[in-house]
Amino acid sequence: MSKEASFSTELLSLLEENPLRSSEILAKLLGREPSEVEQEVARLENEKVILAYKAIIDDEKAQRRTVKAVIEVKLVPERGGGFDRLAQRIARYSEVTSCFLMSGGYDLLVFLEGSTLQEVALFVSEKLATLRGVTSTATHFMLRTYKEQGILVGEAVATNRLPVSP
Amino acid sequence: MQPAPGPQTGKILPFVPDETSWVARHVQDLPRSGIRDFFDLVQSMEGIVSLGIGEPGESTPWNIREQAIFALESGKTGYTSNLGLLRLRQAISRYMERLTGVCYDPEGEILVTVGVSEALDCALRAIINPGEQILYAEPSYVAYSPGVLLAHGVPVGIPTRFEDGFRLRAQAVAQRAKPGVKALLLNAPANPTGTMVDEEELEGIAAISAKNDWVVLADEIYAELTYEKRHRSIAGLPGMKERTVVLNGLSKAFAMTGFRLGWACGPTSLIAAMVKIHQYSMLCAPILSQEAGIEALEHGAAKVESMRRSYQRKRNYLWRSLTALGFPCHRPEGAFYLFPSIVPFGLSSQEFAFRLLREARVAVVPGSAFGPSGEGYLRCSFSPRMGDLEEAVGRMSRWMRANFRKGTSPATEN
After folding, report:
1. For residue A151, how many other CB atoms are within 10 A of its CB?
2. Each residue of B159-191: pLDDT tens digit?
3. Domain range enclosing A94
4. Domain ranges of chain B
5. ipTM greater than cut 0.85
6. Measured between beta carbons, which residues in chain A are less than 8 angstroms from residue B317?
7. What is the pTM of this model?
8. CB-facing half-sphere around the CA of A118: CA atoms within 13 A
9. A17-61, pLDDT tens digit by residue?
10. Structural class in CATH, domain B77-299
11. What is the three-class DSSP state of A158?
């Protein structure tokens, strides 16, 4: 890996870990100048390598009563376009939080979020299932989150290290 | 014990025990660890951010912890062979070959111990006749000198200097090559300085050791944690495997300090001698740790590499931050410690560390804990989590501004 490519990779992994660090701190961590970090972040943002920065929230603690579901969707691929056109069409709905093309028993895995169970169920039956090309859907509601995007939910952060050891 | 003084009545007098006389003289004479007093004070205080930890800030990777749980569930609760589980020794053999390029026979050249500490203790006790000298670079790990004394040897620290990057030089070793020296104890990358040994110096040191027929004890516990160049083991130099006992373990790179799992690799004769001590004192390393150790060595490499990269970034951060605060400091090549100088501030390392603790609520280890040549320095660990490092730097920065003008004596005194 070239020096620049590894700078980029290291910077991305630091931003993934915590996007709130200042460019001064990022520069210290990477042994660079703050201006170099700012330039590289700007480039990564402009080129849409970095899509967004988001907080990961414990919904239970935040008392957010969102309903989440995953939907297995089977599609009929289109001549010329495969699954892409239909997948992109599904992904554009604001209720859809993530959408992946899958190998195996179904084609798309769609993550949905709504405020009530009914809202999510209606979206599936009225919007998703009625799209031309969708042959079947199977809805699974999420009951509890144990780990979200690599972060354990409810895990205490405190370390139990002795404050001074040889 | 002396009988209590009393009139000569002919009766048997009750003994008033002189309790100090129960403790062996060489143990009585052993100095208390310089870290101990400091530890007691830190323990008694609230809200401390500590750069004083001598271990990884992260917990052991889950797959390794889970393997220990599985071993417990499977009823693996008995003794193992004195040498350690054969499967573990085989894994150690493969690992050591990858790490050092040296091949060790799991059947007689590897002993699994309770951490490197026990491996070092066994090695010292196995080779030292009373009064024989052991050389080591100083500032050094806190247990070297006491370990030698407990084995009835004479510790001889070879001072290294800040101006020379705390490097151990072959020339300095050669100056100590006198009759009565039994072994050289080499620690690279070093705790507390993070220094490695230069290639040509290592060759020089190997030549001196061979010429004087010394044993080399190579404490390589930080071998995985190097940042610019790979660790080179002295055992890999021509003719050195035969006279070197390499000590290593899982504590640092695999974040497994509490598992207490280490090992010694060396010539059959020395390992056999160490086994004698180990079998009568420790019997074997705990089986749960050994089972976890197999998982670590067989499936831990990626996690070790990701922790290494994280240490490297945190090293960069803390080094730049401390130098910006006016501490003269080398950028360490390995381990997870900075060893900044506090000479410009006109305080002893004890005074500096105690004031920093009480006034800024940041714990570091005074350099004097690592031998006389550690005076004038602090050991600051960059293994804690990044958030703690940032907090420590913030507190130190405010405290430094309030108390010192950059590069001058203290502005205020308590």
Report:
1. 10
2. 999 999 999 999 999 999 999 999 999 999 999
3. 67-143
4. 31-54+302-403, 77-299
5. no
6. 25, 28-29
7. 0.90
8. 0
9. 999 999 999 999 999 999 999 999 999 999 999 999 999 999 999
10. alpha beta
11. coil
